[in-house]
User: Which sequence fits this backbone?
């Protein structure tokens, strides 16, 4: 919370109007084709860097918005900067939010994963998002653009499942090394096409 107050003050956003979402509904940023402005780039990268640090530490709720806006760091526009600062408005409205870890003698790890399909109109790549919970508290979260273009929603969801499964393997390995007795880890997914591909790996994709 102290860091949040610090960056709000640093960017003169401590009195900004609070908002209910990290980005406006249906906001779809477009990459700039104009000449780069070095002063604007420096300011924008400073805003994004501060938000990234906060997101990686304790705020999974802004992960998608921050990663989305970070894609324009090389050549931002004033519109990009205004919407990056819009995230500050959401943070100010939700400055008390945080991650709570409760004491529990049981051990349960589970994951939730999702993906969109070709949502980025700049390159038509999809976005992967997942979070891993340790006894209902998030310990790992990701929002990133997929490396290749998916040709269907099921393929995009399948690639997201693959990324999440890799994270689960790492968490499982870490906990086993720390001598924890781990029950089966459940990964939740809501796309039947990708689940079918997982259950039938010999099917053509």
Assistant:
């Amino acid at each position: 919370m102290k860091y949040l107050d610090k960056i709000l003050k640093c960017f003169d956003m401590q009195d900004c109007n609070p908002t209910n979402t990290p980005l406006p509904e249906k906001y779809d940023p477009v990459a700039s084709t104009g000449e780069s402005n070095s002063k604007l780039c420096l300011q924008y990268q400073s805003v994004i860097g501060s938000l990234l640090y906060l997101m990686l530490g304790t705020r999974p709720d802004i992960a998608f918005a921050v990663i989305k806006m970070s894609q324009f760091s090389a050549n931002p526009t004033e519109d990009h900067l205004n919407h990056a600062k819009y995230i500050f408005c959401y943070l100010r409205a939700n400055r008390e939010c945080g991650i709570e870890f409760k004491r529990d003698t049981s051990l349960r790890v589970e994951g939730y994963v999702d993906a969109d399909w070709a949502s980025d109109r700049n390159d038509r790549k999809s976005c992967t998002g997942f979070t891993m919970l340790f006894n209902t508290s998030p310990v790992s979260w990701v929002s990133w653009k997929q490396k290749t273009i998916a040709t269907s929603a099921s393929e995009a969801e399948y690639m997201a499942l693959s990324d999440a499964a890799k994270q689960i393997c790492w968490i499982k390995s870490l906990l086993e090394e720390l001598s924890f007795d781990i029950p089966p880890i459940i990964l939740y997914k809501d796309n039947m096409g990708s689940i079918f591909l997982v259950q039938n790996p010999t099917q053509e994709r």
Q: What stands out?
A: The longest helix spans residues 153-177. The first strand starts at residue 109 and ends at 115. Strands lie at 109-115, 127-134, 137-145, 186-188. The chain has two domains: 2-93, 109-199.
